[in-house]
Design goal:
With 70 residues, the chain is mainly alpha-helical. It has one domain. The protein has 2 helices and no strands.
Length: 70
């Protein structure tokens, strides 16, 4: 088969190109379970970071209170 630009494409190459397009279309699909698990993991990480920050703030307040009472 000869295309307009003069390149010669065989049936195997055309088949391979159509398979590549099919693969690209299927790889663009989104798995909702994957998205929800990522969201849960992100929320857990944010909660952990918030608890650490709260603990540090309370530690600073406690140390300041002890130093001020001396």
């Amino acid at each position: 088969m000869i295309s307009m630009s003069g390149e010669q494409l065989t049936a195997k190459e055309l088949n391979r190109k159509s398979e590549d397009l099919t693969f690209r279309k299927s790889s663009l699909r989104v798995d909702i379970n994957d998205l929800t698990s990522r969201a849960r993991q992100r929320n857990k990480k944010e909660k952990r970071e918030n608890y650490i920050f709260l603990g540090l703030v309370l530690a600073v307040v406690l140390v300041t209170g002890v130093v001020a009472s001396l």
